[in-house]
Amino acid sequence: MMRFLRKHRTWLMTVIAVLSIPFIFYFVRSDYSAIRPDEFARVYGRTISLTEARRDARLFDLARVLGMTTFLQDLAGRAEGDPQGQVYGQFILNLQILRHEAARLGIRPAAADVIERVRNLEPFRSAAGFDMNKYNEFVENVLAPNGQTEAQLEEIVRDELALERIKQLVATGVTVSDAESKADFEKGYSKLFVSVVRLSAADFARDVKFTDDDIRKYYEAHKTELKSPEKRKVDFVSLVLSDEQKKLTGKERIDALQKLADRANDFTQALLEKGADFKQVAAKFQLPVETTGEFTAAATDPQLKADAKLGSAAFRLAAQEPISDPIQVADGFYVLHLAGIAEARPLSLEEANPQITEAIKSTRARELMMTKANEIAQQLRQALGSGQPLDAAAQKTGVKLEKLPEFSLVEDSAKPEQQQTESPDLIMIKNAVAELEPGGVSDVFPSETGATIAVLERREPPEEKKYSENKSAFEQRYLRNMRTIAFHEWLRGRQRDAGLLPAQKS
Question: What is the value of pTM for the model shown?
Answer without folding.
Answer: 0.56
